[in-house]
Write a structure and sequence with these properties.
Blueprint: H1 6-40, H2 44-49, H3 51-80, H4 91-137, H5 140-145, H6 148-190, H7 192-198, H8 202-239, H9 241-246, H10 250-303, H11 308-349, E1 372-379, E2 388-395, E3 400-405, H12 411-416, E4 426-431, E5 434-435, H13 441-446, E6 448-451, H14 462-466, H15 475-484, H16 488-493, H17 511-524, E7 529-533, H18 541-555, E8 559-563, E9 575-580, E10 583-588, H19 590-596, H20 599-615
Parallel strand pairs: 3-8, 3-9, 6-7, 7-8
Antiparallel strand pairs: 1-2, 1-4, 4-5, 9-10
Length: about 625
């Protein structure tokens, strides 16, 4: 095998040493480019829909840049006219030309901003709507692990950062690239030597910018995460303000909030330091370049290499170049913040609802009669911890079934499987003989009226709360639902009756009143299946009896499942099911279960004793 000459062997050794490093650098750049494009991929459909204003804005940027770049040449001719008295009469023409160019540039800059920033506002509007709509589709299990304050922070601060990236970020980056490219080209045409000297700081600027970009993004993500914690703390305290005051914990909560706030300030100061170093370094390097040009340019004018007009024009172009260099740091900052925020929003948008229509869904189903069957159902919120085990239960359409049991026995969990708030871990829930997963979610839930254990009312009128989920409700039907829920006497005491405005979560109503408004809301839907989860726990016994008497007529024509800890609310049910530790321990009518002398009998005797003690 032939040997290489010494000089070539040295070159080969150098290649063996450098090639892996060069490959790593190019690979790193390629990976960064791929990562950058994948991060921006979620926003591409929105930009595509608003491509026209972005294109109009970009064209306006070109015209504004052209008008701006013409000004130094007019200055050149104006300065050179001082050497020729005959041409001095043209000074007014030069001055007028500068004013006209400034006006033209101003008009096109207005169009540029109006189009690009306007498009970013519209994208923010659409993205916020899509984000909210996506949150509406996510399953309850998602909200068990993600805090409300964090979701609110993404809907406000993060969306604002994305808008800034798509508006001012794109606007200034495109303007910066155009102005810098054109200004450098003009500078080279005037004096290549001066242009070369003025561009000496650029590699150092690039190194500083790209070195700090990663830090800006990392710290900004930490800022947004801390903002989420602050939002969570505020939301929790405002929602639970009565608990905070009841336990005299105001000062403790203030101190905890102060700790979160101090951490937020610390992260923001870190970000401000990085931003400051970025802008300060760029400005400093630009200033050094300006000094070099003044010194070297002056010498070249004296030597006759260039004219004074050339130097004035060159300095004007260099001044134009200085702002893009400064704006570059700010623009990169906006882009990094926008990327970080877009990633945070995209994490939520990528969440898939666990409960959704699937391939097995039969779109031909439009109505539900209401029979329910549980076939060997196991269920757990966590895979390794079952709440319900081996549930077998048949409920014919139009029957009333009551579920009783001690706290934590799985009553509410069983109820939640019917409207598919959760799906069983194993087994099947059948509606009208079909697997509930085969019925379109909209159809299934439209035919179910549910009063959950945790009553929630919106900050709206009582009328709107009762009519929630019903399009164009009939006033007579609302009045009927109010009568069934035994709300008439309470409404008469309110200043505006049904039009009384409620506070947050219905704070100006008592617990019993809130439950009855929620009951009226469920009844107004006239559902095929009515689910009542401890719906009367906050009303007194006499009111409960009246409501149950009204409900008997309603329940006669629909399948009803009642969960209650009161025996008085379930004694008339067609079937009573007793749960113990997630399993069906007993089933039968009221009399049959009392005769068994088991868990139901114990609950009954315990409640009789409690009533006797209350009477005493």
């Amino acid at each position: 095998m032939a040997t290489l000459p010494t000089s070539l062997r040295g070159w080969e050794a150098c290649c063996e040493t450098c090639a892996p490093r060069i490959c790593r650098i190019s690979s790193g750049r390629r990976n960064r480019a791929i990562r950058f494009s994948s991060e921006l991929k979620p926003i591409v459909p929105y930009i595509r829909r608003h491509l026209r204003p972005y294109l109009v804005g970009f064209v306006a940027t070109i015209f504004a840049t052209a008008a701006q770049l013409a000004s130094p040449w007019i200055l050149k001719y104006a300065v050179e006219s001082f050497r020729f008295p005959a041409k001095q009469r043209h000074l007014l023409v030069y001055a007028g030309s500068l004013v006209a160019l400034a006006a033209v540039a101003g008009v096109f800059r207005y169009i540029m901003r109006q189009q690009i920033v306007g498009a970013s506002r519209r994208i923010e509007y659409e993205l916020r709507n899509d984000y909210f709509a996506h949150l509406q589709r996510l399953s309850p299990s998602f909200y068990r692990r993600v805090k409300t304050g964090d979701l609110m922070a993404r809907a406000t601060n993060d969306l604002n950062a994305v808008r800034m990236m798509l508006g001012p970020g794109i606007l200034h980056s495109s303007s910066t690239v155009l102005v810098a490219t054109a200004a450098i080209a003009q500078m080279v045409s005037i004096d290549p030597v001066l242009a070369g000297v003025s561009l000496l700081p650029l590699p150092l600027m690039s190194a500083v910018v790209f070195g700090l970009m990663k830090k800006i993004r990392t710290v900004f993500e930490a800022v947004q995460a801390q903002y989420s914690r602050i939002s969570e703390k505020v939301q929790e305290n405002l929602a639970g303000i009565r608990i905070v005051k009841s336990y005299v914990s105001e000062q403790r909560e203030i101190e905890l909030f102060e700790q979160h706030n101090r951490a937020f300030i610390a992260e923001n100061l870190r970000l401000a330091k990085i931003r400051g170093s970025l802008v300060g370094t760029i400005e400093g390097l630009a200033g050094i370049g300006m000094l070099l040009i003044l010194w070297l340019g002056g010498r070249r004018v004296i030597s006759g290499a260039i004219t004074l007009g050339d130097l004035v024009a060159f300095m004007s172009f260099l001044t134009m170049l200085a702002w893009p260099m400064i704006a570059l740091g700010w623009t990169m900052n906006l882009i990094q913040q926008g990327r970080a925020s877009l990633t945070r929003i995209d994490r939520i948008m990528r969440e898939k609802p666990e409960i959704a229509d699937g391939p097995q869904t039969d779109r031909s189903i439009r109505h539900i009669r209401g029979s329910i069957a549980f076939r060997d159902v196991d269920f757990g919120y966590e895979p390794d911890h079952l709440v319900l085990r081996d549930i077998r239960l048949d409920i014919p359409a139009g029957r009333t079934v009551a579920i009783v049991g001690k706290t934590g026995s799985g009553k509410t969990s069983l109820l939640n499987l019917v409207p598919r708030l959760y799906d069983p871990t194993s087994g099947q829930v059948l509606i009208d003989g079909r697997d509930a997963r085969e019925i379109p979610l909209q159809v299934l839930r439209r035919h179910i009226g549910m009063v959950p254990q945790d009553t929630f009312l919106f900050s709206d009128t009582i009328r709107e709360n009762i009519a929630f989920g019903v399009e164009n409700p009939d006033p007579e039907k609302i009045a009927w639902a109010v009568r069934v829920a035994h709300l008439e006497e309470d409404l008469a005491s309110f200043p505006d009756g049904l039009d009384t405005m409620l506070g947050e979560r219905g704070i100006n109503l008592s617990g019993g009143q809130k439950q009855r408004v929620a009951l009226a809301r469920a009844i107004l839907r006239e559902p095929s299946i009515l689910l009542l989860d401890d719906a009367l726990s906050a009303v007194d016994t006499q009111t409960e009896e009246r409501i149950l008497a009204n409900l008997r007529e309603v329940m006669r024509t629909r399948t009803t499942i009642i969960v209650s800890h009161r025996i008085s609310a379930v004694r008339d049910a067609d079937l009573i099911v007793v749960l113990r530790d997630g399993e069906i321990a007993e089933r039968g009518t009221h009399q049959e279960l009392l005769a068994l002398g088991g868990l139901y009998w114990e609950l009954y005797e315990m409640q009789k004793l409690e009533e006797a003690l209350e009477a005493i």
